[in-house]
Amino acid sequence: MTDQNRRDESADRGIRSKTPENGEPHGSYGSAYFETRLANHPNRAKIWRHVCTYLQRWIPANAEVLELGAGWCDFSNNVVAKRVVAMDLDSRLGRAAAEHVEPVIGDCTDLGRFEPGSFDIVFASNLLEHLEREASNRLLAEAKRVLRADGRLILMQPNFRLNPGRYFDDFTHVSIFTDESLQDYLVAEGWRIDEVRARFLPLTLKSKTGSLTFLVPWYLRSPIKPLAGQMLVVASR
Predict the structure, then answer these.
(1) What is the pTM of this model?
(2) Is CB count within 10 Å lower at the N or C end of the chain?
């Protein structure tokens, strides 16, 4: 199946039907959320190219990868892998996904369309904090089911410990995680922790340094991380 056929098939599964007659994208938060908290920042692609280069140490080039809560497909469009599937509730996904990415519109806590052991990597950025505990339990269980025996879960999350005063600036945040609590939560759900970076990236692209994309590789390598608000956790099933 060609990349275009996959994209057409994904559209038939939901992208077209999820777009109302007035042309406005359908999603869990509506267009206003994308215009405020998830606006398509002009430097987003540049930043994510650097982030994905860093993350490739855990992602083999021949891996099959699933991104949950993909949004603008920042990770999916830039990661190097044999197969990349991007999943999100919002129909913007169909327009945001690059040609090689398979866009799937759907609930990330229900991965029933995928067979067990379909992927080597499940990735999610800034997703669990938007979910109530019952929903995040389902997501983790489903992620484990669709991963192969040696598969990895890679999570980027706001770290409440680093910037509690701004954690709820996003009005859709409903759950709190720190680098300690997220590790404990994953272990309790049957995961093995491989790597934790408590200080990984700034909290948001809206920071004043968001335009200094050439500094991103240095920032990722440096033990000194001013303005850090995001953590990284890598776990295995």
Answers:
(1) 0.82
(2) N
pLDDT band for position 171 (50/70/90)?
confident
Q: Which amino acid is at 87?
A: M
Domain boundaries of the chain, sorted by first residue: 3-236
Instruction: Write the pLDDT tens digit of every residue in 130-147.
Output: 999 999 999 999 999 999
Q: Residues 55, 61, 63, 64: what is their CA dihedral angle, to the nearest 10 degrees?
A: 90
Amino acid in position 50: H
Residue 118 has pLDDT above 90, yes or no: yes
